[in-house]
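hi! just following up on the protien thing from before. the input was this:
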Amino acid sequence: MNETPTFLNPPIVEFVLGAQFSPLSELTSAFYGKFWNHLGENWGKPQDNPLIADQFERFGEERAPLRWQLKLETAPLVNRLTLINADEDRLLQIQPSRFHLNWRKTDVFKPSYKELISEFERYFNEFKAFCEKDGVGTIEVNQWELTYVDCFPKGAYWDTPSDWGKFLPGLFRIEQISLGEKLQLESRAAQWEMEIQPRLGRLHLSASMGRWRTDQPEALMLNLTARGPLVAGHTPTLRSGLDLGHQVAVDQFLKMVDEEVKNDWGYKDE
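and the predicted 3d structure came back as:
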């Protein structure tokens, strides 16, 4: 994996590392309680949440939708459990087919990718071992996934959406639409899908108006999600897939940002 630059004050507000696997039909709410107890006092504030739908990056004929397809599934026994750590900058998400670790921005700046991936692997390995020990089943990973969420607040980076091309010239042209004399652009949204060649996964990118938190100003919210299957000879392991996704997402993000803006964030010496 190539090294990526680290900034002192980048716009990232959330980072998610995740694994998707074959559903564990024996996973129950009682197991959630046991695993939470295993994690210790640093994790709390448990919440029951709806399941995140499984996603599969397919290509060619496999990607074409099947018509008149009847799909019968057994209703899941449990929903998604979320736990928050004591510092409230980490979120664990567990469901019968997914395991995610979120970092969320607080007053303390985020650790490096190396630190976060090590944390994710440690907790995921504990989860896998606990599943086998408790008779829940063996984890069979079928998809790797990571997401970056970046926030560009109004007032700090832009005044109207027409300004977005000034700091993201690789994504928006400064003037994408010719406006009438009495018109001012108030909102815009867009999304893109890019193949990670050769058919190793996809980078999904979306941009829209929003807020990082309800107490924060209006902002351009940029989401980059890299996701893909385990591919023999290329990304045969969860770690190799996540490393690839990290590299692709960061490289693409940096290609889109104005150089002066990146300099304003300040480069951090490792």
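The two ends are 16 Å apart (CA to CA).
The first strand starts at residue 12 and ends at 21.
cheers
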